[in-house]
Design a protein that fits this description.
By secondary structure, the chain is an alpha/beta fold. Helix content is about 40%, strand content about 20%. The strands form 2 sheets. The chain has a 5-stranded parallel sheet with strand order 2-3-1-4-5, with helices on both faces. It holds the Pfam family PapZ_C.
Length: about 290
């Protein structure tokens, strides 16, 4: 059975993900207590359900202990288990809760860190939730939804659920430093020191996927030197992540606007690794 465990910070887009996977044919369960997951899978397996998606989040905070062992046991039983974790910057989450005027799931909780008659502020709830879900996040492929539109998130989730089972999936991601470093990055490479096509008026409206920009950057020796250095580093260390049983590795490459240099570098690295690895590509600023 294919099992997708969906978790993440409240307000980061879990409802969007649940709608996507339900449309893809998954049997979906929201807010399942983690201790009931093995029983649910046993029941649905007996009824020959091929795909199941389960949302587990901070609403079951006191029941989250042991999730890594549960996921490992399901994999040992022969199930293909993926864990997807959504996050976003605290500033973005505060803005979203302000827009919807909904309270945070933890807003009425009283924790040991506080006096018995003190409620947590929204920012405190978000930070508390990050701590509560840290154990699940460590198991997961992470998607940072800080500056994503809903359609982008839907497309990225479709890519994740459609990829074939592989020891390691590489996620190459371009981004704009002026928008902040993505929270889902395992490695971050800065290519802002490379020649910038933005200052050529003919190249400015194009992207790193367009042939004129590609020709411009490939004619720069320093660009090829940077590419070779990044390639050498990743080629050396990717096998270590496989040995460590990692399922996903996200490599983020940033330039100032996330349109030319970082996009070019991501596309070039993808071409190299695609023949040997399971690879996904994301361009945060290209929609």
């Amino acid at each position: 059975m294919q099992i997708l465990v969906i978790s993440g910070i409240s307000g980061s887009g879990k409802s969007v993900v649940l709608n996507v996977v339900e449309d893809a044919g998954y049997y979906c369960v929201d807010n399942l207590p983690p201790s009931l997951l093995p029983e649910l899978i046993t029941t649905l397996s007996a009824q020959h359900y091929p795909q199941v998606a389960v949302a587990i989040d901070s609403r079951s905070a006191h029941l989250l202990t042991g999730m890594p062992e549960t996921v490992q046991a399901l994999r040992q039983a022969g199930h293909a288990v993926k864990v997807l974790f959504l996050t976003a910057s605290t500033e973005s989450l505060v803005a979203r809760f302000s827009e919807t005027r909904r309270s945070h799931p933890l807003s009425h909780w009283l924790t040991l860190k506080q006096t018995v008659d003190t409620h947590m502020t929204l920012t405190e709830c978000i930070e508390e939730e990050r701590e509560i879900l840290a154990e699940i996040q460590a198991l997961a492929h992470i998607i940072d939804t800080t500056d994503l539109r809903a359609n982008q998130l839907r497309n990225w989730v479709k890519e994740v659920i459609e990829i074939q089972h592989a020891p390691l999936t590489l996620m190459f991601e371009s981004f704009a430093f002026k928008r902040g470093v993505p929270l889902d990055a395992d490695f971050v490479f800065d290519v802002r020191m490379l020649p910038n096509p933005h200052y050529d008026l003919d190249l400015r409206p194009l992207t790193g996927r367009d042939e004129p920009v590609i020709r411009y950057l490939e004619a720069q020796p320093v660009v090829q030197e940077m590419y070779a250095d990044i390639l050498q580093f990743l080629s050396k260390w990717i096998p270590s992540f496989k040995e460590d049983n990692r399922s996903y590795l996200t490599i983020a490459i940033g330039c100032t606007g996330g349109q030319h240099r970082s996009v070019y570098m991501v596309e070039k690295l993808t071409q190299h690794f695609r023949s040997a690895e399971q690879v996904l590509v994301r361009h945060r600023r290209l929609g």
